[in-house]
Every structure is written in structure tokens, then in C-alpha cells.
Amino acid sequence: MLCAVRGRPRKDEEEKRREQLLEQAVRLFGEHGFGNLSLETIAREARVSLRTIYSQFGGKAGLFSAAVRRYSDFFVAALPVDRVGDTPFNEILVEFAREYLFQLTRPELIRLRGQFLAEAHRFPELACEFYSQGPERTLNHLAGFFEGQQLAGRLGAGDPLFLAGQFVSALRGERFQRLQFGLDASPSADEVAVWARQAVDLFLQGCLHPLA
Predict the structure, then answer these.
(1) Is residue 40 part of a domain?
(2) What do you get for the CA distance between the two ends of the chain, in Å?
């Protein structure tokens, strides 16, 4: 009987292991912060070798950057910039808002953001990397979407990047700050849906009565 030959993992297996490593990294960075977390701890918890981490990410900073970008991928994928079909503009924004808030309010991401805000002054270069791979990437993608909607006549004039910043700020709001302080529990899917709808309505319509 022929024995099975053990070779290199298939590409889908490698991708699965990479995703598991990034998930563990997000959890551990959120629990310990960046400065107090060793690569040895990450390797042990994720059940990978140090060599694997160095070969794939170059070290702890590269692993952190990849973990942040992984979550940014969810935000970017939730809003195709070329989506100008039959779906109403406000519904596209609501769909994006739901995904954005669902990911942003996950406990591990709340902890990660809180830890890194506390350490940003110690690692200014990493702070720039965190911002560029996470918030800035999402803002630029959203700004591109707004610009496309302006060209299609669905959105009024205005700096698309400014609009993107205002929209994201409207989404987070006071409730997100309470989550970061640990004053509220993570919202359910239904609560996120209501939160997203309210924020989009306020962003698009404002709160003043229309003039008679």
C-alpha cells in the first residue's frame, strides 16, 4: 500500500492558517498591547513557529499591520465603489453602516483599538501604520464611493473625503465611546441595524424640519 506523501500545505490550507494566526494576533494585541506582547507568546497561542511569523510578516510590527488591514478589508468589501445600480443610495449606505458597525463593535476590536490608543505615543511609526492600514484606508474607499455618487447625480457637491469623515463620525457617535469605556455591552445584530439606519438617516437628512 502506498503511503500518503506529506508535502507543503495546499494554498487554501495556508490561507486558513494565516487567517487563524491573524485572529489570534488581534486577540492577543487587544489583551496585552503591542509593547508587552512577545512574538513567542503569539507563536505559542497560535500554534505556529517563530520562523512562520517572520517569513510571512517580517516580525511583530508587520503582523500587527496585517491584522489591522484584515479588519479594514471587511469595511472596504462592504462598499463597492462602482455600485451605482438600482439600489437606492441610502440603502447602500445602510448596508455599509451595518457591516462597519458590526465589525467595529466586536469585543476584540474594541480592546485592540483601546490598547493601541494608549500606546500610540510610544510607537509613533506604528501609529501611522495603524491609521493608514485601518481608518485612512476605509475613509479613502468611502470617499471614492461618494465621489462616484456625486458624478452620478445622487449626491450633492462637497469634498468627498470630508463627507466620508463626517459619515464615519456619525456612525460611531457617543455609543461607540461608551463601548470603548466598557459602559455598554456589545450590540446585537438587531441593535446594529437600528443604529445604522438612524445614523444614515441623520447624515442624509439632518435634524431640521424642512422649510415650508
Answers:
(1) no
(2) 87
- Is residue 28 included in any domain, yes or no? no
Average pLDDT, integer, range 149-159 = 89
Q: How many CA atoms lie within 13 A of 175 on its CB side?
A: 16
pTM, entire model? 0.81
Assigned C-alpha cell, 96: 455599509
| Secondary-structure percent of the chain, ordered helix, strand, coil, rounded to 5 | 70, 0, 30
178 within some domain: yes
User: Based on the structure, what is the number of domains in the chain?
Assistant: 1
CATH assignment of the domain containing 192: 1.10.357.10
Q: What are phi and psi of 113, to 5 degrees?
A: -65, -45
Per-residue pLDDT, averaged over 84-107, amounts to 87
CA 198 to chain centre: 21
> 196, exposed or middle or buried, with CB in 10 Å at 0-12, 13-18, 19+?
buried
Distance CA 174, CA 178 (A): 6
Q: What range defines the domain where residue 151 resides?
A: 67-205
